[in-house]
Amino acid sequence: MEFVKAFLVGGVICALVQLLMDKTKLMPGRIMVLLVVAGAILGAVGIYGPFAEWAGAGATVPLLGFGNTLWKGVREGIAQDGILGIFKGGFKAGAVGISAALVFGYLASLIFSPKMKD
Question: What parts of the sequence cross the membrane (predicted)?
């Protein structure tokens, strides 16, 4: 049942983002930034944490979850290092996910040999 819930929650988030892309003139990059900032704000307010615990991977994998992860890292960084933690915390919290995305993206490019569109 946990997988079904994650699939449904992730699907609803993706459907809402697709509607935002279709119904507004916002560029995809701005929508991505909006999602990360929204995840950080919802985490700061205390809404996203309980939602992510309930929804599982359906809420932690999308960009909203990345924003929440950055917020948690900044909060922990401030607690440990003071004002310098604002800068260090986000990098420390997001480093593993970003590194994994780069490594697996590179490996996929080696396996599938992508080509430019004409």
Answer: 6-21, 33-51, 93-112
Q: Name 61's Cβ contacts closer than 8 Å, sequence gap at least 6.
A: 10
Helices (H), 82-115: 85-112
Distance between CA atoms of residues 90 and 71, nearest Å: 7
CB atoms within 10 A of CB 52: 22
pLDDT tens, N- to C-terminus, the chain (118 residues): 889 999 999 999 999 999 999 999 989 889 999 999 999 999 999 999 899 999 988 888 888 888 999 999 999 999 998 998 888 888 888 888 889 889 999 999 899 877 777 6
